[in-house]
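Reopening: Raffinose/stachyose/melibiose transport system substrate-binding protein still failing for me.
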Amino acid sequence: MKKKTLTLLISLVLTSLLLMACGGEDTSSDADTPSSDETNEEVITLRMMGYNPESSRAQYLAYLDEQLPNIKVEFEFVALDNFNNVLNSQLQAGEGPDIIEVGGEAKLLARANYLLDLTEYDFMSKYAASGTAPYSVDGSVYAAPLQSWFEGFFYNKAIFDEYGVEVPRSLDQLIAVSKELEAQGMTPQAMGAQSWEPMMKQSIGIVNNEFYSNEDNMAFNDQFNEGEAKLSEAWLPYVEEWYRLIEEGILKEEMLGLSYDQALDDFATGKAAMWQSGPWAIETIYEKNSDIELGMFPIPGVEEGPGWLIGGPGSALAINANSKHVDEALAVLELTATEEAQHKLVADNAGSSFLTGVEVDLGEVYADSEEAFKLGNVYAPWTASWFSGNPIVESYGKSLQEVLSGTKTVEEALQDADETNQTLIDTLN
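Support: Ran it again with your exact input. Result attached.
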Protein backbone atom coordinates (compact mmCIF):
# COMPACT_ATOMS: atom_id res chain seq x y z
CA MET A 1 0.00 0.00 0.00
CA LYS A 2 1.19 3.46 -0.77
CA LYS A 3 1.99 5.61 2.22
CA LYS A 4 -0.18 8.41 0.83
CA THR A 5 -3.23 6.14 0.98
CA LEU A 6 -2.39 5.05 4.51
CA THR A 7 -1.90 8.65 5.58
CA LEU A 8 -5.37 9.51 4.31
CA LEU A 9 -6.81 6.51 6.11
CA ILE A 10 -5.08 7.46 9.33
CA SER A 11 -6.51 10.96 9.06
CA LEU A 12 -10.02 9.63 8.52
CA VAL A 13 -9.90 6.84 11.09
CA LEU A 14 -8.11 8.59 13.93
CA THR A 15 -10.50 11.52 13.76
CA SER A 16 -13.32 9.14 14.67
CA LEU A 17 -11.61 7.48 17.61
CA LEU A 18 -13.09 8.33 20.99
CA LEU A 19 -11.88 5.40 23.10
CA MET A 20 -10.37 4.21 25.08
CA ALA A 21 -7.47 2.41 24.28
CA CYS A 22 10.34 7.47 14.81
CA GLY A 23 12.41 8.64 11.86
CA GLY A 24 15.92 7.82 11.77
CA GLU A 25 16.95 4.22 11.79
CA ASP A 26 18.24 2.75 15.01
CA THR A 27 19.52 -0.78 14.90
CA SER A 28 21.27 -0.85 18.24
CA SER A 29 19.99 -3.11 20.98
CA ASP A 30 19.05 -1.74 24.36
CA ALA A 31 22.38 -3.07 25.62
CA ASP A 32 24.01 -0.33 23.53
CA THR A 33 21.72 2.38 24.86
CA PRO A 34 23.69 4.65 27.20
CA SER A 35 22.22 4.94 30.68
CA SER A 36 22.06 8.24 32.52
CA ASP A 37 24.67 7.26 35.08
CA GLU A 38 27.26 6.42 32.37
CA THR A 39 27.39 9.89 30.84
CA ASN A 40 27.64 13.51 31.88
CA GLU A 41 25.92 14.80 28.79
CA GLU A 42 23.49 17.69 28.93
CA VAL A 43 19.92 16.95 29.96
CA ILE A 44 17.80 15.83 27.01
CA THR A 45 14.12 16.78 27.04
CA LEU A 46 11.63 14.22 25.76
CA ARG A 47 8.00 15.00 25.06
CA MET A 48 5.53 12.27 26.07
CA MET A 49 1.95 12.74 24.84
CA GLY A 50 -0.80 10.80 26.60
CA TYR A 51 -4.58 10.68 26.82
CA ASN A 52 -4.58 9.46 30.41
CA PRO A 53 -4.10 12.44 32.75
CA GLU A 54 -0.80 13.10 34.45
CA SER A 55 -2.39 12.24 37.83
CA SER A 56 -2.77 8.63 36.63
CA ARG A 57 0.99 8.50 35.92
CA ALA A 58 2.31 10.71 38.73
CA GLN A 59 4.44 8.20 40.65
CA TYR A 60 5.72 6.64 37.44
CA LEU A 61 6.79 10.01 36.00
CA ALA A 62 8.48 10.92 39.29
CA TYR A 63 10.34 7.60 39.15
CA LEU A 64 11.60 8.35 35.64
CA ASP A 65 12.83 11.74 36.81
CA GLU A 66 14.64 10.15 39.74
CA GLN A 67 16.25 7.30 37.82
CA LEU A 68 17.13 9.14 34.60
CA PRO A 69 18.69 12.45 35.69
CA ASN A 70 20.01 13.21 32.19
CA ILE A 71 16.53 12.86 30.67
CA LYS A 72 13.68 15.24 31.36
CA VAL A 73 10.27 13.84 30.41
CA GLU A 74 7.72 16.55 29.71
CA PHE A 75 4.28 15.00 29.91
CA GLU A 76 1.66 16.51 27.62
CA PHE A 77 -1.95 15.53 28.33
CA VAL A 78 -4.41 15.75 25.44
CA ALA A 79 -8.02 14.76 26.16
CA LEU A 80 -9.11 11.60 24.38
CA ASP A 81 -11.80 13.29 22.30
CA ASN A 82 -9.09 15.37 20.58
CA PHE A 83 -6.00 13.22 21.07
CA ASN A 84 -5.94 11.49 17.71
CA ASN A 85 -6.63 14.71 15.79
CA VAL A 86 -3.69 16.44 17.50
CA LEU A 87 -1.35 13.46 17.19
CA ASN A 88 -2.23 12.74 13.57
CA SER A 89 -1.66 16.32 12.42
CA GLN A 90 1.75 16.40 14.11
CA LEU A 91 2.85 13.04 12.74
CA GLN A 92 1.83 13.95 9.21
CA ALA A 93 3.97 17.07 9.55
CA GLY A 94 6.97 14.90 10.43
CA GLU A 95 6.88 16.05 14.04
CA GLY A 96 5.02 14.85 17.10
CA PRO A 97 6.04 13.74 20.59
CA ASP A 98 9.06 11.51 21.18
CA ILE A 99 7.01 8.98 23.15
CA ILE A 100 3.35 8.35 22.32
CA GLU A 101 0.65 6.68 24.39
CA VAL A 102 -1.14 4.40 21.95
CA GLY A 103 -4.21 2.19 22.11
CA GLY A 104 -6.42 0.66 19.44
CA GLU A 105 -4.92 2.86 16.72
CA ALA A 106 -1.40 1.44 17.18
CA LYS A 107 -1.59 -1.03 14.27
CA LEU A 108 -2.66 1.72 11.88
CA LEU A 109 0.15 4.01 13.03
CA ALA A 110 2.67 1.19 12.68
CA ARG A 111 1.51 0.36 9.16
CA ALA A 112 1.92 4.01 8.24
CA ASN A 113 5.56 3.84 9.45
CA TYR A 114 5.05 6.36 12.24
CA LEU A 115 6.26 4.05 15.03
CA LEU A 116 9.69 2.59 15.78
CA ASP A 117 9.93 -1.20 15.55
CA LEU A 118 10.82 -2.39 19.09
CA THR A 119 10.95 -6.12 18.37
CA GLU A 120 14.70 -6.64 18.72
CA TYR A 121 15.23 -4.75 21.97
CA ASP A 122 15.90 -7.06 24.91
CA PHE A 123 13.51 -5.32 27.31
CA MET A 124 10.53 -6.21 25.08
CA SER A 125 11.10 -9.92 25.73
CA LYS A 126 10.16 -9.34 29.39
CA TYR A 127 6.50 -8.76 28.48
CA ALA A 128 3.89 -11.49 28.11
CA ALA A 129 2.65 -12.05 24.56
CA SER A 130 -0.89 -11.16 25.64
CA GLY A 131 0.37 -7.66 26.43
CA THR A 132 2.26 -7.06 23.20
CA ALA A 133 -0.16 -8.70 20.73
CA PRO A 134 -2.40 -5.62 20.33
CA TYR A 135 0.65 -3.59 19.27
CA SER A 136 2.06 -6.12 16.82
CA VAL A 137 1.94 -6.08 13.01
CA ASP A 138 3.31 -8.86 10.81
CA GLY A 139 5.40 -10.29 13.64
CA SER A 140 6.91 -6.98 14.76
CA VAL A 141 6.06 -5.16 18.01
CA TYR A 142 5.70 -1.39 18.05
CA ALA A 143 4.79 -0.50 21.66
CA ALA A 144 5.47 -1.58 25.24
CA PRO A 145 2.29 -2.31 27.23
CA LEU A 146 1.46 -0.38 30.37
CA GLN A 147 -0.86 -1.78 33.03
CA SER A 148 -4.03 -3.56 32.01
CA TRP A 149 -7.42 -1.95 32.01
CA PHE A 150 -10.57 -3.72 33.04
CA GLU A 151 -14.20 -2.87 33.48
CA GLY A 152 -17.03 -4.58 35.34
CA PHE A 153 -19.96 -3.68 37.55
CA PHE A 154 -19.18 -1.51 40.54
CA TYR A 155 -21.78 -2.09 43.23
CA ASN A 156 -22.67 -0.48 46.54
CA LYS A 157 -22.27 -3.22 49.15
CA ALA A 158 -24.36 -1.38 51.74
CA ILE A 159 -27.29 -1.08 49.30
CA PHE A 160 -27.04 -4.77 48.39
CA ASP A 161 -27.14 -5.67 52.11
CA GLU A 162 -29.99 -3.28 52.86
CA TYR A 163 -32.17 -4.60 50.05
CA GLY A 164 -31.24 -8.23 50.60
CA VAL A 165 -29.70 -9.04 47.23
CA GLU A 166 -26.51 -10.89 46.35
CA VAL A 167 -23.86 -10.46 43.70
CA PRO A 168 -25.23 -12.03 40.49
CA ARG A 169 -23.29 -14.80 38.76
CA SER A 170 -25.58 -15.26 35.74
CA LEU A 171 -27.62 -13.05 33.45
CA ASP A 172 -30.86 -14.36 34.96
CA GLN A 173 -29.59 -13.47 38.42
CA LEU A 174 -28.61 -9.98 37.24
CA ILE A 175 -32.12 -9.46 35.90
CA ALA A 176 -33.67 -10.82 39.11
CA VAL A 177 -31.48 -8.64 41.34
CA SER A 178 -32.30 -5.58 39.22
CA LYS A 179 -36.04 -6.25 39.42
CA GLU A 180 -35.90 -6.81 43.18
CA LEU A 181 -34.05 -3.53 43.72
CA GLU A 182 -36.48 -1.65 41.48
CA ALA A 183 -39.48 -3.19 43.24
CA GLN A 184 -38.15 -1.75 46.50
CA GLY A 185 -37.67 1.71 45.00
CA MET A 186 -33.94 1.58 44.25
CA THR A 187 -32.54 2.26 40.77
CA PRO A 188 -30.67 -0.94 39.90
CA GLN A 189 -28.14 0.39 37.42
CA ALA A 190 -26.91 3.83 36.45
CA MET A 191 -25.84 4.12 32.83
CA GLY A 192 -24.61 7.19 30.97
CA ALA A 193 -25.88 6.03 27.58
CA GLN A 194 -25.21 9.43 26.02
CA SER A 195 -21.89 7.70 25.41
CA TRP A 196 -21.92 4.73 23.04
CA GLU A 197 -19.36 2.85 25.15
CA PRO A 198 -21.33 1.31 28.09
CA MET A 199 -23.78 -0.81 26.09
CA MET A 200 -21.07 -1.77 23.63
CA LYS A 201 -18.85 -3.09 26.42
CA GLN A 202 -21.68 -4.68 28.40
CA SER A 203 -22.98 -6.63 25.40
CA ILE A 204 -19.47 -7.79 24.48
CA GLY A 205 -19.13 -8.98 28.08
CA ILE A 206 -21.88 -11.49 27.31
CA VAL A 207 -20.08 -12.43 24.07
CA ASN A 208 -16.91 -13.05 26.11
CA ASN A 209 -18.80 -15.41 28.41
CA GLU A 210 -20.56 -17.36 25.69
CA PHE A 211 -18.30 -17.14 22.62
CA TYR A 212 -14.70 -16.23 23.45
CA SER A 213 -14.66 -18.55 26.48
CA ASN A 214 -14.31 -21.29 23.85
CA GLU A 215 -10.72 -21.07 22.61
CA ASP A 216 -11.76 -22.55 19.27
CA ASN A 217 -13.68 -19.34 18.58
CA MET A 218 -10.56 -17.20 18.83
CA ALA A 219 -9.88 -18.05 15.17
CA PHE A 220 -12.94 -15.95 14.36
CA ASN A 221 -10.94 -12.75 14.89
CA ASP A 222 -8.48 -13.54 12.12
CA GLN A 223 -11.34 -14.34 9.76
CA PHE A 224 -13.12 -11.13 10.77
CA ASN A 225 -9.97 -9.10 10.05
CA GLU A 226 -9.95 -10.54 6.53
CA GLY A 227 -13.66 -9.92 5.99
CA GLU A 228 -14.36 -13.65 5.91
CA ALA A 229 -16.57 -13.72 9.03
CA LYS A 230 -19.31 -11.47 10.33
CA LEU A 231 -20.36 -10.34 13.80
CA SER A 232 -23.99 -10.38 12.70
CA GLU A 233 -23.71 -14.15 12.26
CA ALA A 234 -21.28 -15.28 14.98
CA TRP A 235 -22.31 -12.92 17.77
CA LEU A 236 -26.04 -12.53 17.18
CA PRO A 237 -27.34 -15.21 19.60
CA TYR A 238 -25.26 -13.80 22.47
CA VAL A 239 -26.03 -10.13 21.92
CA GLU A 240 -29.70 -11.09 21.76
CA GLU A 241 -29.27 -12.58 25.25
CA TRP A 242 -27.89 -9.22 26.43
CA TYR A 243 -30.88 -7.51 24.77
CA ARG A 244 -33.06 -9.11 27.45
CA LEU A 245 -31.87 -6.31 29.76
CA ILE A 246 -33.68 -3.89 27.46
CA GLU A 247 -36.73 -6.15 27.05
CA GLU A 248 -37.01 -6.51 30.83
CA GLY A 249 -36.78 -2.76 31.35
CA ILE A 250 -33.45 -2.87 33.19
CA LEU A 251 -31.84 -0.63 30.57
CA LYS A 252 -34.23 2.21 29.74
CA GLU A 253 -34.50 4.72 26.92
CA GLU A 254 -34.15 7.64 29.34
CA MET A 255 -30.57 6.52 30.00
CA LEU A 256 -29.74 8.02 26.60
CA GLY A 257 -30.13 11.40 28.26
CA LEU A 258 -27.54 10.67 30.97
CA SER A 259 -23.84 11.49 30.64
CA TYR A 260 -20.98 9.48 32.11
CA ASP A 261 -20.56 12.07 34.88
CA GLN A 262 -24.26 12.05 35.76
CA ALA A 263 -24.33 8.26 35.98
CA LEU A 264 -21.18 8.28 38.12
CA ASP A 265 -22.77 10.83 40.45
CA ASP A 266 -25.99 8.81 40.76
CA PHE A 267 -24.01 5.74 41.74
CA ALA A 268 -21.56 7.47 44.06
CA THR A 269 -24.31 9.28 45.96
CA GLY A 270 -26.40 6.14 46.50
CA LYS A 271 -29.13 6.81 43.93
CA ALA A 272 -28.26 3.62 42.03
CA ALA A 273 -26.96 0.27 43.22
CA MET A 274 -24.69 -0.59 40.28
CA TRP A 275 -22.62 1.21 37.69
CA GLN A 276 -20.35 -0.18 34.98
CA SER A 277 -16.85 1.30 34.86
CA GLY A 278 -13.24 0.68 35.87
CA PRO A 279 -10.52 1.61 38.40
CA TRP A 280 -9.97 5.05 36.85
CA ALA A 281 -13.29 6.13 38.40
CA ILE A 282 -12.55 5.13 41.99
CA GLU A 283 -10.89 8.37 43.09
CA THR A 284 -13.88 10.41 41.90
CA ILE A 285 -16.34 8.01 43.54
CA TYR A 286 -14.60 8.37 46.90
CA GLU A 287 -14.38 12.15 46.50
CA LYS A 288 -18.16 12.22 46.16
CA ASN A 289 -18.80 9.67 48.91
CA SER A 290 -15.89 8.74 51.15
CA ASP A 291 -18.06 6.29 53.11
CA ILE A 292 -19.23 4.17 50.19
CA GLU A 293 -18.64 0.42 50.53
CA LEU A 294 -17.44 -0.42 47.06
CA GLY A 295 -17.11 -3.71 45.22
CA MET A 296 -16.83 -4.88 41.63
CA PHE A 297 -18.19 -8.04 40.01
CA PRO A 298 -17.62 -9.26 36.43
CA ILE A 299 -20.24 -9.15 33.68
CA PRO A 300 -22.10 -12.44 34.10
CA GLY A 301 -22.92 -14.89 31.33
CA VAL A 302 -26.02 -16.91 30.52
CA GLU A 303 -24.84 -19.80 32.67
CA GLU A 304 -23.82 -19.27 36.29
CA GLY A 305 -20.08 -18.83 36.58
CA PRO A 306 -17.17 -16.50 37.36
CA GLY A 307 -18.08 -14.05 34.59
CA TRP A 308 -15.81 -11.95 32.38
CA LEU A 309 -14.47 -8.44 32.62
CA ILE A 310 -13.98 -6.25 29.59
CA GLY A 311 -10.34 -5.29 29.29
CA GLY A 312 -6.81 -6.18 28.38
CA PRO A 313 -3.78 -4.05 27.64
CA GLY A 314 -4.98 -0.57 28.45
CA SER A 315 -2.49 1.45 26.48
CA ALA A 316 1.18 1.30 25.59
CA LEU A 317 4.19 3.50 24.99
CA ALA A 318 5.52 3.77 21.44
CA ILE A 319 8.43 5.77 20.07
CA ASN A 320 7.93 8.23 17.25
CA ALA A 321 9.97 7.03 14.27
CA ASN A 322 10.87 10.68 13.57
CA SER A 323 12.11 11.39 17.09
CA LYS A 324 15.51 13.11 17.30
CA HIS A 325 16.13 11.36 20.64
CA VAL A 326 15.51 7.68 19.97
CA ASP A 327 18.25 6.48 22.35
CA GLU A 328 16.83 8.50 25.23
CA ALA A 329 13.29 7.32 24.46
CA LEU A 330 14.55 3.73 24.47
CA ALA A 331 16.12 4.35 27.88
CA VAL A 332 12.68 5.37 29.19
CA LEU A 333 11.06 2.22 27.82
CA GLU A 334 13.87 0.05 29.16
CA LEU A 335 13.39 1.49 32.65
CA THR A 336 9.63 1.02 32.33
CA ALA A 337 10.26 -2.70 31.84
CA THR A 338 11.37 -3.12 35.47
CA GLU A 339 9.36 -4.35 38.44
CA GLU A 340 9.86 -1.06 40.30
CA ALA A 341 8.49 1.02 37.43
CA GLN A 342 5.53 -1.33 36.97
CA HIS A 343 4.52 -0.92 40.60
CA LYS A 344 4.77 2.86 40.19
CA LEU A 345 2.43 2.63 37.20
CA VAL A 346 -0.30 0.75 39.05
CA ALA A 347 0.03 2.89 42.16
CA ASP A 348 -2.03 5.67 40.59
CA ASN A 349 -4.11 3.61 38.17
CA ALA A 350 -5.01 0.09 39.28
CA GLY A 351 -4.40 -2.76 36.88
CA SER A 352 -2.30 -5.86 36.43
CA SER A 353 1.15 -5.84 34.87
CA PHE A 354 2.16 -7.63 31.66
CA LEU A 355 5.79 -7.78 32.80
CA THR A 356 6.59 -11.42 33.49
CA GLY A 357 6.82 -12.20 37.21
CA VAL A 358 5.24 -8.98 38.49
CA GLU A 359 2.22 -9.51 40.74
CA VAL A 360 -0.13 -6.75 41.80
CA ASP A 361 -2.58 -6.83 44.73
CA LEU A 362 -5.62 -4.91 43.51
CA GLY A 363 -7.28 -4.78 46.93
CA GLU A 364 -10.60 -5.66 48.55
CA VAL A 365 -12.72 -3.68 46.08
CA TYR A 366 -12.03 -6.34 43.44
CA ALA A 367 -12.44 -9.42 45.64
CA ASP A 368 -15.62 -10.48 43.79
CA SER A 369 -13.64 -10.47 40.54
CA GLU A 370 -10.69 -12.48 41.86
CA GLU A 371 -11.85 -15.76 40.32
CA ALA A 372 -12.26 -14.13 36.90
CA PHE A 373 -8.79 -12.59 37.14
CA LYS A 374 -7.19 -15.92 38.05
CA LEU A 375 -8.87 -17.61 35.10
CA GLY A 376 -7.76 -14.86 32.74
CA ASN A 377 -11.36 -13.87 32.02
CA VAL A 378 -10.46 -10.36 30.89
CA TYR A 379 -10.83 -9.62 27.18
CA ALA A 380 -11.69 -6.95 24.64
CA PRO A 381 -11.48 -8.32 21.09
CA TRP A 382 -11.34 -4.91 19.43
CA THR A 383 -8.09 -4.01 21.21
CA ALA A 384 -6.60 -7.50 21.43
CA SER A 385 -7.16 -8.78 17.90
CA TRP A 386 -8.99 -6.52 15.47
CA PHE A 387 -6.98 -4.51 13.02
CA SER A 388 -9.42 -1.57 12.93
CA GLY A 389 -11.04 -2.17 16.29
CA ASN A 390 -11.93 1.30 17.56
CA PRO A 391 -13.92 2.51 14.51
CA ILE A 392 -15.81 -0.80 14.46
CA VAL A 393 -16.93 -0.71 18.08
CA GLU A 394 -17.79 2.97 17.79
CA SER A 395 -20.11 2.16 14.90
CA TYR A 396 -21.57 -0.76 16.86
CA GLY A 397 -21.99 1.25 20.07
CA LYS A 398 -23.76 4.13 18.32
CA SER A 399 -26.12 1.65 16.67
CA LEU A 400 -26.88 0.12 20.10
CA GLN A 401 -28.04 3.59 21.17
CA GLU A 402 -30.59 3.28 18.38
CA VAL A 403 -31.47 -0.20 19.65
CA LEU A 404 -32.20 1.28 23.07
CA SER A 405 -34.37 3.97 21.48
CA GLY A 406 -36.28 1.29 19.58
CA THR A 407 -35.26 2.33 16.05
CA LYS A 408 -32.89 -0.54 15.27
CA THR A 409 -32.59 -4.24 16.00
CA VAL A 410 -29.60 -5.97 17.52
CA GLU A 411 -28.95 -7.68 14.19
CA GLU A 412 -28.90 -4.31 12.40
CA ALA A 413 -26.41 -2.94 14.96
CA LEU A 414 -24.09 -5.87 14.30
CA GLN A 415 -24.53 -5.45 10.55
CA ASP A 416 -23.45 -1.80 10.91
CA ALA A 417 -20.25 -2.96 12.61
CA ASP A 418 -19.66 -5.49 9.82
CA GLU A 419 -20.09 -2.77 7.20
CA THR A 420 -17.57 -0.53 8.98
CA ASN A 421 -15.09 -3.39 9.10
CA GLN A 422 -15.54 -4.15 5.40
CA THR A 423 -15.17 -0.47 4.43
CA LEU A 424 -11.85 -0.27 6.25
CA ILE A 425 -10.65 -3.55 4.72
CA ASP A 426 -11.53 -2.27 1.26
CA THR A 427 -9.72 1.01 1.90
CA LEU A 428 -6.59 -0.70 3.15
CA ASN A 429 -6.56 -3.03 0.16
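The chain has a mean pLDDT of 89. If you still see a failure, please send the error message rather than a screenshot.
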